Amino acid sequence: MKMWLGKKIIFLQTLLCFSIVGTNSHGLKEYHFVLKEAHYRRLCSSKPILTVNGQFPGPTVRAYYGETIYVNVHNKGKYNITLHWHGVKQPRNPWSDGPEYITQCPIKPGGKFRQMLIFSIEEGTIWWHAHSDWARATVHGAIYIYPRKGESYPFPTPDEEVPIVLGEWWKSDVSDVYEEFLRNGGSPNESDAITINGQPGDLYPCSKSETFKLNVHYGKTYHLRMVNAAMNLVLFFAVSKHNLTVVGVDSAYSKPLTRDYICIAPGQTADVLLHANQEPNDYYMAARAYSSALGVAFNNGITTARIHYHENHAPNKSPSLPYLPLYNDTKAVFDYYVSIKGLNEADPYQVPTNITTHMLTTLSINTFPCPENQTCAGPNGTRLASSVNNISFENPTIDILEAYYYHIKGVYHKGLPKFPPLKFDFNAEYLPLELQIPKKGTKVAVIKFGSTVELVFQGTNLVTGIDHPMHLHGTSFFAVGYGFGNFDKHKDRKTYNLIDPPLMNTILVPKNGWASIRYRASNPGVWFVHCHLDRHLSWGMETVFIVTNGEGDAEILPPPPDMPQC
Ligand SMILES: *[C@@H]1O[C@H](CO)[C@@H](O)[C@H](O)[C@H]1NC(C)=O
Ligand SMILES: *[C@@H]1O[C@H](CO)[C@@H](O)[C@H](O)[C@H]1NC(C)=O
Ligand SMILES: *[C@@H]1O[C@H](CO)[C@@H](O)[C@H](O)[C@H]1NC(C)=O
Ligand SMILES: *[C@@H]1O[C@H](CO)[C@@H](O)[C@H](O)[C@H]1NC(C)=O
Ligand SMILES: *[C@@H]1O[C@H](CO)[C@@H](O)[C@H](O)[C@H]1NC(C)=O
Ligand SMILES: *[C@@H]1O[C@H](CO)[C@@H](O)[C@H](O)[C@H]1NC(C)=O
Ligand SMILES: *[C@@H]1O[C@H](CO)[C@@H](O)[C@H](O)[C@H]1NC(C)=O
Ligand SMILES: *[C@@H]1O[C@H](CO)[C@@H](O)[C@H](O)[C@H]1NC(C)=O
Ligand SMILES: [Cu+2]
Fold it and tell me: So where does this one cross the membrane (predicted)?
């Protein structure tokens, strides 16, 4: 604990970091994250929210390619908490990954946990967030990973970098929203605003003066480090009269892609260049939801922030809004995603072509009958649920990683089906109601170290077809294909991009369609796999992949001494 007070303070230019980051006696960077409540005023009212270090969005973590750093987490809040480093692959180190009851027991109020973040191939932007209940609504922040010292970006060095963290704000306490929908079995209340860097923007009441403003100089290039930290909304984002050039997604560089809008799903990140090359004026940047599922209510509001050209001396009171595709424009979403191409030609990390492990998992919204003596707010008085290959995941009471490592029996079961247990027309317009009720269980899939995996995520039309941003912990994967309808291995594999697919950690599976990923299972450990729409996660759309140990230095590291206990 005392070590960090040490020597060099890095990134002096960022005042906020001064108190929270230092280096320890081994020269490794150490951050200090204190979970605590702070009052924030939004939409004309104030409420206490859980934060890290009193900040919302939380502090930015900065690292260089391949670096290892520590984050000392101290829970001074009222609730159990865990923190996850989204997109940090943590080679051999699932211990610090964070999902509650998957790789650790929660850090109880008053507790501490020193988490080690091992960066490997990440470069660009990712993020961190709480991984217990719905705490991540307010407990999240960006992670910037710079090129190795002395090396440069694969694009001209931008003049400035700017965080664009998209989120959602509820006027109520988020833990009440969470408890309410789990209790009544219905859908959670919609958020009251979408936010850019914590601010709803000046189209919302009482939000004008705090609206996020980006001051630009004509001719300069701004590196937008974008994170979708929203709980339940896939978002479109655009800047009025300006193009956006995407140069990376999920902390892997991609071929420059210039568009007038981008799409970003919860869990995803993007490195985007904005050239300040238009008439010096004021412009809006804006985001709003993509949500095409029938009968699913969503926040259809629009969040804005302002871009002000330094050269403009007469700020425009009502700048124009950018063009954003309609909320149901599925084509706009997937036209964008299939246009993202990886920058992997020279990479040793190649797209697997010889697949040893095939999997196809259905992703479904489900219902359970309402328990006797209760009234339930789900469709036809049922309780909403969700599943992966018809298993609605139940959290165990001690974490799966410890159960696996110490051979504790009865905590989880192997044998998550690698294919749907029942073949049916997954996306038929009408499906028998009896298919809708899943099984409950804590089922995991075991994947042999070194396997080359092809995993097809298949959406179904049970209850309602909807898009799912599926996230894998502990690895990145190549997003090799997307399509609509039921996956047909003979026809659809021919459409894969095996040349330059992007390397991602979260893939948006189209409504009534499928998405296919490939990767080599080279990171031993216990890794969470889940939908990043938090309501689906809360209903059970998750599972765990246990990647076995390899030989020699391909084994899980020993646990740290301060693992939180259940
Ligand atoms: C959710 O919305 C309903 C209907 O507007 C309201 O009665 C309820 O208080 C809300 N719950 C929370 C936790 O805000
Ligand atoms: C945006 O890009 C398109 C296609 O490259 C181009 O036609 C258009 O002029 C660009 N617009 C701006 C504002 O740069
Ligand atoms: C999207 O919604 C608009 C207006 O609500 C409607 O006119 C249009 O037909 C819808 N498009 C699709 C593809 O469903
Ligand atoms: C594919 O992998 C299997 C199992 O590792 C191996 O036996 C086989 O030789 C490989 N085939 C090719 C073409 O590389
Ligand atoms: C339902 O309520 C009745 C009357 O209050 C009670 O006798 C019965 O045990 C309850 N059933 C369940 C399943 O809780
Ligand atoms: C899921 O499992 C339940 C229980 O075995 C069964 O009734 C239901 O039909 C199954 N649904 C699907 C889609 O496999
Ligand atoms: C609700 O009940 C109606 C009538 O039985 C049925 O057609 C519909 O599919 C049900 N919806 C759900 C989601 O269970
Ligand atoms: C907090 O975590 C401990 C350890 O797992 C557990 O026993 C306790 O029930 C949790 N508290 C709440 C409020 O969930
Ligand atoms: Cu989902």
Answer: none
